[in-house]
């Protein structure tokens, strides 16, 4: 296990001018919650970055990468680290979720952002697909990783979505939870194979669905088997509470 180093000090003047490709920021003006995983139900701010290295057919944020359906000029902007830190500081909410897309595509520029957020008294959770190992500077006090490897049933080839070296880096960090989207018992069997092969723990299972009815139905299919494996079960609170509205 890698011992995390504390992140100290805010971004330097030069770092603060780094620009990130951002799809949207929300949670400051209209409050919301972290909807999934270990912090489900916690008040949260969201910085959703644009671009992804996967093309999952069941992705619910295709506006971050699918330019056959969306216009990147309308769906993304470039914002400086200083601007993003100031936005987060405008809210008393402690938790900042950096998501995507795949945020670690831009991780060189995320280092000063995380440094600034931690200096501002925030804690940070990354939502990542687990295909890119985190930079050592991001494996730090106040930072957690919600790693969500995508199964073939999510509409992606596992030769692209399962990257053993990256998963091993997250395990070694000691700062990761592994959250899988699942809809069938076969999905749970595949999760067990991956967890055993790569020593993934703790495991969280999130029932697939973009409506309360679908999430409820899938939860009832999976719940007994998830409990029998002594895994964690998470819902999608933002779907239940806000009908999967964008920006909530």
The CATH architecture name of the domain at 13-177 reads Alpha-Beta Barrel
Name the shape in a single word. globular
Task: List unreliable stretches of 5+ residues.
Answer: 1-6
Number of strands: 9
- Biggest sheet details: 9 strands, mixed
Helix proportion range = 25-40%
Strand order, main sheet: write it out: 3-1-2-4-5-6-7-8-9
CATH class of the domain at 13-177: Alpha Beta
Tally of DSSP helical segments: 9
CATH topology of the domain at 13-177: TIM Barrel
Overall pLDDT level: 94
* Cα end-to-end separation: 35 Å
The string of secondary-structure elements, in order, is HEEHEHEHEEHHEHEHEH
Query: Class by helix and strand content?
Result: alpha/beta
Can you put this structure into words, describing what you see?
By secondary structure, the chain is an alpha/beta fold. It has a domain at 13-177: TIM Barrel, CATH 3.20.20. Helices cover 33% and strands 19% of the residues. The protein is built from nine helices and nine strands. The protein has a nine-stranded mixed beta sheet. α3 (81-89) packs parallel to α4.
């Amino acid at each position: 296990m890698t011992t995390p180093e504390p992140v100290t000090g805010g971004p330097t003047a030069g770092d603060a001018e780094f620009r990130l490709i951002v799809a949207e920021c929300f949670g400051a003006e209209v409050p919301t919650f972290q909807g999934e995983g270990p912090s489900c139900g916690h008040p949260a701010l969201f910085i959703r970055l644009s671009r992804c290295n996967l093309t999952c057919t069941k992705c619910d944020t295709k506006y971050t990468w699918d330019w056959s359906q969306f216009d990147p000029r309308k769906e993304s902007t470039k914002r400086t680290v200083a601007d993003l830190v100031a936005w987060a500081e405008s809210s008393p909410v402690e938790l900042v979720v950096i998501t995507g897309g795949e945020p670690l595509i831009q991780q060189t520029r995320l280092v000063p952002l995380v440094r600034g957020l931690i200096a501002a008294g925030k804690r940070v959770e990354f939502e990542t697909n687990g295909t890119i190992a985190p930079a050592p500077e991001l494996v730090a006090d106040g930072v957690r990783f919600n790693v969500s490897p995508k199964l073939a049933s999510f509409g992606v080839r596992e030769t692209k979505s399962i990257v053993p070296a990256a998963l091993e880096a997250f395990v070694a960090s000691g700062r990761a939870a592994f959250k899988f989207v699942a809809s069938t018992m076969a999905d749970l069997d595949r999760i067990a194979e991956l967890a055993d092969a790569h020593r993934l723990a703790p495991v969280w299972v999130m029932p697939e669905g973009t409506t309360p009815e679908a999430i409820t139905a899938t939860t009832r299919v999976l719940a007994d088997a998830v409990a029998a494996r002594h895994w964690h079960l998470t819902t999608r609170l933002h779907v239940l509470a806000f009908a999967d509205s964008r920006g909530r």
